[in-house]
Amino acid sequence: MPGTCAPQAAFAAVPEAFDGLEGGHALDALLNWLGEAVCVTDGQYRYLAANAAMAAIYGLHDPAEMLGKTAFDLYPDFRQSVFFEACAAVVREQAPQSRIGYSGVARGWVTIRVAPLGRDRYALVVQRIAHRTDATITLQQHDRLTALPNRWRLEDDIGRQADPNAGGGVLTLLDVRRFRSLLHAFGAGEGDRALVEIAARIQNNLRLPQQAYRYGDDRFAIWAPDGQESLRASLACVRNALAAPFVLDGVPVHIQFCIGRACHEPTSTVHKTIIQAECALAAAKAGPQHDVEFHPGLAGPGLDPVLTTHLRAAIDDHRLDVHFQPIVDALDGRTVYAEALVRWNHSQHGLLLPGAFLPLAEDAGWMTAIDRFVLDRAVTFAAQAARGGTPFGVAVNLSADSVDDPGTVDAVHVVLRTRGLPPSRLLLEITESSMIRQPERSRDVVAALRGLGVSTAIDDFGSGQAGFTYVASYPSQVVKIDRSLVAPLPDSHTHRVMVNNIIRMVHGLGSLVVAEGVETPGQRNALQAMQCDMLQGWLVGKPMAPGAFMNWLRAHGGTGDIASPVR
Ligand code: C2E
Ligand code: MG
Ligand code: MG
Question: What is the pTM of this model?
Fold first, then answer.
């Protein structure tokens, strides 16, 4: 296993441990006593070693009768069996595999574990599951792909094993960062292979009684009933093992993880501990640290699991709202276009702004669904307004997930065609941070959208680390200067110099500039003097519900196309 800690002996014994026993008999006795069927085969499924329990599966009394024969010789239906499924997967993948299933030849439910030993040798261990009810429970409590126990089993184990003397145990959650990008790049088969390998690297670096679990799609859990101290050492080994590259489709890939941890207080409930570990994980995903331990300050309303359930229902039932904020010409104040901003009118909490629920959606992987919904609402609204004699251009935000999603450009094309809005009336905003995160992909999306005749904007420019080279390498029609640079105007000399230079640079590249978050006449005057093209902010108009926005538009003059593509 690449990247595991220093190799440990698989079996240790003092020289006199087997005194008086003939060579090999001690191992025989041990293997038979274990009760699990054990054998070694080659890649042709030929038996090279077996114990009595393995022979018993075939109805044989002497394992020697198996040697030299293949599984096909002993079991004509081998190809249709769960054994074959597990063995073939190991030969193909050259990585450990596990299967749970009903075996005809063993006449019962079995757990099969197979691992490559190297040089065309494979070890196979079969464990009978005694009762059908045990089998059902085992199936219900294990993940089929990795054979790790699943989340239901985790909940049981925490409840049963939490040891008050060891401080109650520690729950650790590990999340594979950007697993969906990996799936897009390598396909589902390689993605599954990666998950099996991750599972093995985690489990192989734990010490009893610690146990790994498949917690969700690309999430794993470690439950350490023996407390913080012993977990710390194991976690260092797990981290080490996971840092080694994973070979996917022949390519070495470094996979990153976020980790969240919570202590299970003896007086607490399992449910609460799980929520606390999830809070810590969410903080690890959102913040600069990739390993976060839960503390009470982390629990915010945004991580409320009830709110998450409501949000999914609101997305599914199309119960989110879209408000529109005008973006106006800096000199004459005429509306150039409007930005569509998602809102959620919650039955108990009232109107929620994106900051209260988008982090939840990001965490759950629902951003693409939200973006598509907003896109459809915004385009439909703009098309209706145009038919009613008040045309306006509309901007929609694309999340990093949407930029990543291979269906996004097609979705834009389809929505424009079906709703009847000319592409020149749509602008898509991609934040500076998602551009930095996936530069190549963003460039492709910007180019493809441009091919459709749709404009793009770099959103929140100046909020992160994106330098001028970024702007220069994205052929966007619009660059939006982040509110954090606009707020200190006009007093801050530094900010005047920065904003002025950004405007010069963007103009030099042939694009237009929007200043975000303009709240005061002083800011507007400074921006006008610097020849900023457009303004967005409360001074001009707050985001408005569609009806209020139409009234505003009629009073301030409608718009047509967004910005003529100059780059
Ligand atoms: P953004 O795209 O930069 O949108 C501008 C944000 O600035 C909006 O916040 C807007 O209400 C706020 N704003 C505008 N003028 C002013 C001002 O003068 N002062 C202040 N303090 N704020 C102002 P909002 O609606 O809360 O949205 C926050 C962010 O959430 C947006 O930032 C955008 O990144 C994201 N977002 C909103 N709707 C969507 C959506 O449909 N999809 C995606 N992917 N993201 C969205
Ligand atoms: Mg925006
Ligand atoms: Mg912005």
Answer: 0.56
With contact defined as beta carbons under 8 Å apart, do 218 and 192 qualify? no
Q: Which residues line ligand 1 (CB under 6 A)?
A: 325, 341-342, 353-355, 358, 367, 370-371, 374, 397, 399, 429, 459-460, 483, 516-519, 536-538, 543
Report the nearest-CA residue for atom 27 of ligand 1: 354
How would CATH label the architecture of 25-136?
Answer: 2-Layer Sandwich (3.30)
Pairing of β 512-515 and β 478-481: parallel
d(CA 115, CA 219): 23
Return the CATH number of 142-295, one of 3.30.70.270, 3.30.360.10, 3.10.20.30, 3.40.50.150: 3.30.70.270
Angle at 42 between CA 41 and CA 47, to 5 degrees: 35
Hey, what's the torsion of the CAs at 98, 102, 104, 108, to 10 degrees?
Answer: 110
Which residue, among 115, 99, 105, has the nearest Cα to 41 in the 3D structure? 115
pLDDT greater at residue 353 or residue 102: 353
Beta bridge partners of residue 34, listed in sequence order: none
Nearest ligand 1 atom to the CA of 402 is 44
Same fold, 25-136 and 142-295: no
Peptide bond connecting 209 to the previous residue in cis, omega within 30 degrees of 0: yes
Lowest mean pLDDT, pick from 15-19, 28-32, 503-507: 15-19
CA of 547 to the centre of ligand 2 (A): 21
Domain-wise residue ranges, the chain: 25-136, 142-295, 326-341+371-555
Q: Which ligand is nearest to the CA of 358?
A: 1
What homologous superfamily does CATH list for 326-341+371-555?
EAL domain (3.20.20.450)
Token pair recorded at residue 132: 């059908």
Q: Is 142 helix (H, G, I), strand (E, B) or coil?
A: strand
Residue 30 has pLDDT above 60, yes or no: yes
pLDDT digits (tens, 9 = 90+) for 125-141: 998 776 656 666 666 78
d(CA 420, CA 430): 23
**Distance from residue 342's CA to the centre of ligand 2 (Å):** 11
Å from CA of 462 to ligand 3 middle: 10
Q: Report how far ligand 2's centroid is from the alpha carbon of 434 (Å).
A: 12
Strand 534-535 versus strand 512-515 pairing type: parallel
Distance 390 CA to ligand 1 centre (A): 24
Strand 37-42 relative to strand 478-481, pairing? unpaired
